[in-house]
Amino acid sequence: MGEVGIGVGGGGMTGDEGYAEHGPLLFSIAYRMTGSVSESEDIVQEAFARLTQAVRGGTAVTEPKAYLARTAARLALNHLRSARLHRESYVGTWLPEPVLAGPGPQERAEMADSLSMAFLVVLESLSPTERAVFLLHEVFGYEHQEIAGIAGTSTANSRQILARARRHVDEGKPRFEASRAQREEVARRFFAAADGGNLDGLLRALAPDVVFYGDGGGKARAVAAPLHGRDRVARFLAGLFRRIRKLDASLRIVEANGQPGAVTCDRDGHVVNVLTLDIADGQVQAIRCVVNPDKLRHLGRVSELARELPLARVSAPVNRPHSVEQGWLRTCSITRVHPDKRYCSRVDYRKNLP
Question: Any idea where the domains of the chain sit in the sequence?
Fold first, then answer.
């Protein structure tokens, strides 16, 4: 971006200086609004482009930070409104694009929680306007008068929208371990057990009602529906990490979306997936795995490993008596993802147990 003179207290500020100073804030707003790294980067660029155009057109911009933030918020809101239909037709579980970073140490804990995948998924239950109003007020500290101008509503209506959004968020708001050190210790024990094939260690690290979510977007192999329960999730993870070791892939511990996580890479260092953990009460409450290649490209070259793995997975069996004559039957489900047709099929079958 070329240099743009912006009047700030009689001084000037170049485009590069402005980007370094205000870019992180704009990205923070856009990402929490959209859940997309690529879209957020485009929104930041567009906000600065509009500032440049305004200044060159003779507009006196005395507060560039406020101008940029308002512009980014409006652009993100417009994106949300246009992307809603796509989200509703998404194949499988939708998760945000992972960011391998978190708020700096000087930022309050709420900022880290609002960056988490769990929180961003909760925000998906809100309308675009509710999401914008909630984030701008609760996370970024905007007053209703300014929010009303961004969202295209009145100040009174902005207050009503916030009250409605708060109720929705409170119903599904995730809990996180308050101690960062304890989160990291639980994550260390979890990944050590998973990577080492220690099923007992996995069972100890997982909460009884733990949930595993996978996002393949119909483009990579992933669980078609969330897996619930300690035993089922532990068995699934044991198999997943056994396959990772067999394929000579590696695990790198990271901070993903402000929470403990890991990146799996193949033997060539290409990204296979990103895992994030929700930790509370000293145990892993939820695991989210992003394997959709479109959501990993910003992290580097994406591995073809996920595409090459089998596209079918048999769910945990449920044993139940069918009849005295036939004895016990095993009822299972197979979920197949069809990348060319972008849909999932589910087939139930029964098999006599030996």
Answer: 15-172, 180-309, 318-352
